[in-house]
Specification:
single chain; alpha+beta; 32% helix; disordered C terminus
Length: 377
């Protein structure tokens, strides 16, 4: 195992402070704040520490609330939302300087056989024929030496190889919003399913937005022509996988109004061996991606019942948040105020879900060919 990979594993190993409370160290990333993949991975570690070993992480959804301070530790508070017969749900809030900087909901499940299918893997060259990340970075004379060294330090634990020039390597002219990247850890991992998922979550935030930058001819943070931050991150896993032997991710851009952008992978595939169940499965980051998933039939009333349910949940969460905030102010309890923040975050999630339901009723058109409203079915 490389020294860089061991250092990353040490970074992701949290200190237990109290029941369901953990503390993690921080370090600076390419930009002078905590790398989002680090916070997401540490939060998943905290959630996983409270879950039985036979239940594996299959999905997470998270919001980045504030920039992380690389010079301060991060405290992770875990809420045990549900322990069912097959599923376990956890909510984690990361706190720095008394304020939440990140919120995550994660679901775990016991292994069960089920329907199994996948889309064909897109064409991609053998990773052995591609330049290493270091070779690519050092081949771009326009990148300052300090920037190159910061990138190499931040990605030293991962062997990450672009199929084509990354945004920071060739920018100024818009390209197809399509990016393919091979990656693997620089060293062999233990057979710990949670560790595999945690490391894949860490890597998922490294290149996901590249396709957005390509579409606009921007080089990104490395060249200083973009100021941006991750806001919403989601990951899903369909089975055990290990990022040791290699994974190929294909990401594409999705249109979004205003100042934001969505990116999603079209597919993620491991290398090595025949396409068995374990080798076909991989952990991938996605934002709203439902490829390969069957859509439930819609009744004549569309999503009316779902909309009502979401509205009820939103108002209930808002009321709970107000009650907790008042109790926290009166009692001076920081824990109660943190709980109020949890409820506010839940309310925001319900509002976003309501927006999604409304948008899903829109029929398909040239700008939105994948709309799934009633008139598109």
């Amino acid at each position: 195992m490389s020294e860089a990979l061991q250092s990353l594993l040490d970074l992701l190993d949290l200190e237990r402070i109290e029941e369901d409370i953990y503390r993690g160290r921080s370090r600076s990333a390419v930009v002078p704040r905590v790398f989002g993949g680090q916070v997401a991975a540490q939060a998943l570690v905290a959630a996983g520490r409270t879950v039985p070993a036979d239940r594996h992480a299959h999905s997470l959804h998270a919001y980045f609330l504030r920039p992380g301070d690389p010079d301060a530790p991060i405290v992770y508070n875990v809420d045990r939302l549900r322990d069912g017969r097959s599923f376990t749900t956890r909510r984690v809030v990361a706190v720095q300087h008394g304020k939440p900087i990140f919120g995550l909901s994660a679901s775990f499940q016991t292994y069960e056989e089920g329907l199994d299918h996948q889309a064909p893997m897109p064409d991609a060259p053998d990773p052995a024929t591609l330049p290493t990340g270091e070779e690519r970075l050092r081949s771009y004379p326009h990148l300052p030496a300090e920037t190159v060294e910061r990138f190499l330090e931040a990605r030293a634990a991962v062997d990450l190889r672009y199929v084509d020039d990354p945004p920071f390597g060739d920018y100024g002219t818009p390209r197809e919003p399509h990016s393919q990247v091979w990656f693997r850890t620089n060293g062999k991992l233990t057979d710990d399913p949670l560790l595999h998922v945690v490391l894949a979550t860490y890597v998922s935030d490294m290149t996901l937005l590249d396709s957005v930058l390509l579409a606009h001819g921007r080089g990104g943070w490395a060249v200083g022509d973009v100021v941006g931050a991750s806001l919403d991150h989601a990951c899903g896993s369909t089975g055990p996988s290990a990022p040791t032997s290699g994974c190929c991710t294909t990401s594409s851009r999705r249109p979004r109004p205003a100042a934001g952008a969505w990116a999603r992978p079209a597919s993620t595939r491991r290398t090595g061996g025949s396409p068995s169940r374990s080798s076909r499965k991989a952990w991938c980051a996605s934002l709203g991606n439902t490829e390969g998933m069957a859509e439930p039939a819609r009744g004549k009333n569309g999503g009316g019942e779902s909309t009502f349910t979401v509205l009820v949940a939103a108002f209930a969460n808002l009321g709970i948040a107000v009650a907790k905030a008042v109790a926290g102010v009166i009692s001076g309890s920081s824990a109660m105020l943190s709980e109020a923040a949890h409820s506010v975050a839940d309310t925001v999630t319900e509002v976003l879900l309501l927006t999604s339901l409304k948008r899903s009723e829109r029929p398909a058109d040239e700008d939105h060919p994948s709309a799934t409203g009633p008139s598109a079915t």
